[in-house]
From TrEMBL:
Family statement: Belongs to the SIMIBI class G3E GTPase family. HypB/HupM subfamily.
Name of the molecule in the record: Hydrogenase accessory protein HypB
InterPro entries named among the record's database cross-references: CobW/HypB/UreG_nucleotide-bd, Hyd_mat_HypB, P-loop_NTPase
Organism: Chlorogloeopsis fritschii PCC 6912
Taxonomic classification: Bacteria, Bacillati, Cyanobacteriota, Cyanophyceae, Nostocales
Gene Ontology molecular-function annotations: GTP binding; GTPase activity; nickel cation binding; zinc ion binding
Top-level taxonomic group: Bacteria
A Pfam family the protein falls into: cobW
Length: 236
């Protein structure tokens, strides 16, 4: 079937971005790092989640953050308070990070630190429920957040984000008693899009569910380290 110019251009852009993402991932694999792409709509609680994650896990894991925002570095400054490297990327009018932008962050990480000392890189993407899911940045896993304040229908209205997610955090569950929202229905709608996704309801304010999230991060990081060790062994 004949493609329009716009459709072909979109495919070419995604193909070029995927090549860059694969290149970024090869760097992470070489250094023994696992990378998570943290995605959500604006205000779902990405930065608050990362604050709690850094406060708990930075003593046991060596973590760096690549922080994407359209203009300011306000979120980056919030995360720097936890004593971890935070590389801020301003995207301007772009509504998502892409692999080329993240490659710039990786090069800064490589220039300023010894990347092989890190266990985990957390990429906080720009707040958007559409584009970030389509443009890989070199991550090993996609983590999506959905706040209870956004309602039950978002997984059905914005399916790609939830189809692509490896882990889905339902955030701000402390607000659920004050809203006309059913968390079990949110989970059911997510399962329609992605039956195998890990779903973890959490509250960064009350800490409910956070230990399950921390355990998921630990298990993924440990598995990546084992995979990298086996890969190096096979090459030797």
């Amino acid at each position: 079937m004949h493609q329009t110019f716009d459709a072909a251009l979109g495919i070419n852009l995604l193909h070029a971005n995927q090549q860059g993402a694969d290149h970024n991932r090869s760097h992470f694999d070489e250094w023994g790092i696992i990378c998570f792409n943290i995605m959500s709509s604006p205000g779902a609680g990405k930065t608050a989640l990362l604050e709690r994650t850094l406060a708990t896990l930075s003593d046991e894991l060596k973590i760096a953050v690549i922080e994407g925002d359209m203009t300011t570095d306000l979120d980056a400054e919030r995360l720097r308070k936890y004593g971890v490297p935070v590389i801020a990327i301003n995207t301007g009018r772009s509504c998502h990070l892409d692999s080329k932008m993240v490659a710039g962050g990786i090069h800064r990480l490589e220039h300023e630190y010894n990347p092989s000392e890190f266990d985990l890189v957390l990429v906080e993407n720009v707040g958007n429920l559409v584009c970030p899911a389509e443009f890989e940045v070199g991550e090993h896993a996609k983590v999506a957040l959905l706040s209870v304040t956004e309602g039950e229908d978002k997984p059905l209205k914005y399916p790609i984000m939830f189809q692509e997610a490896d882990c889905l955090l339902i955030t701000k569950i402390d607000l659920a008693p004050y809203l006309d929202v059913d968390i079990s229905q949110i989970e059911a709608n997510v399962r329609q899009m992605n039956p195998d996704v890990t779903i973890i309801p959490v509250s960064a304010k009350t800490s409910e569910g956070l230990e399950a999230w921390f355990d998921w991060v630990r298990s993924q990081t440990s598995q990546q380290q084992q995979d990298c060790a086996l890969h190096l062994l096979a090459k030797s």
